[in-house]
Amino acid sequence: MAAIIKRISKEDLEGFNALKAGKTKEAKQHFKNYLKLNPNSEQVLEGYANVMMRERKLDSVLVYADSSLIYNPDQVGALLLKASALNTQKKWNEALTASNKMLDIKEEFAEGQFQKGIALRNLNKPNEALKAFQKAIAYKKDYYQAHMQVGAILMNYKNYKKALEVYKKVLDLRKDDLYAQVYTAKCHHLLNDNANANKILNDLPSSHANNFEVVKLRCRMAMQQNDWNNAGRYLNMARNINNNAELFVLRAQYLMKQRRVDLAKQNLDKAVELDRVNREAQELLKSFTQTAQAVTSTNQKKEQEEQQSIMFQDPKPKKTSPITFPNK
């Protein structure tokens, strides 16, 4: 005879139903009520961690995900939430550890491969990151975010033709996706095909004219064409945004043109701080540093030559008065 298990509450089911329906506040209350009765439920602890993720309370996500894992170390959902929170906190090594553990349990898990790819990309392991994102796509063909990450890595390494192929696939999945269209235009621009780039941008709905990605690309194109007035106008449109590495690169390029060298370097430093794998920022900063060192070296050499020329000049004769006076 099968054992009859009496439920202590329906709060857990109601919580998961609310979570599925996007009713975060309601789900939170149901989970809290349930955990008062049964604080050892790995599923409900994971559910509460999910609520914390939706509320962007990352430290709490980790607390509840880890609590869930105490009762079931193989709780894949809790590991996914943990990896995602750690990636968001830029704790890439810890995120990679959580992702690997998750994939040891469930290898063919698109979301797990995606989190692994995010960690690897930010640990400056682009080839391994690409493999993880490609696995995510293999397990979930329409995985939009994974496709976009592949495109971003290819663009970062100047493989614009391959990136174009990726964005074409995205547009096959989402015909009118704004970001895929703008990045397609950006690839054309970086391949010196401004005709196609402009056509794509001009065909966008007017409501997208002030979109941040559109503004950045318009600014980039204006600078390439030495249209510095419009470049400055586009930068002014984004003046209140201070969390985007590419924008700081564009600001640095604009400041270099104005010979505001110190400010340009500050912007490049900020770009690298925000995105340490941004190769455009790295290359400009390296070039900037080499130029500065060359100028310093030239100035030092010039100063040294001037000092040496003074040292080896024939001493000038001491001036004497043409009139001599007898000793008294």
From TrEMBL:
Region (Disordered): 291-328
TPR repeats: 110-143, 144-177
UniProt lineage: Bacteria, Pseudomonadati, Bacteroidota, Bacteroidia, Marinilabiliales
UniProt cross-references to Pfam families, sorted A to Z: TPR_16 (PF13432), TPR_8 (PF13181)
InterPro entries: TPR-like_helical_dom_sf, TPR_rpt, Ycf3/AcsC/BcsC/TPR_MFPF
Keyword Repeat attached: yes
Keywords: Repeat, TPR repeat
PANTHER family noted in UniProt: CELLULOSE SYNTHASE OPERON PROTEIN C, TPR REPEAT-CONTAINING PROTEIN MJ0263
The protein, known as: Tetratricopeptide repeat protein
SMART domains: TPR
Domain of life: Bacteria
Record has tRNA processing as a keyword: no
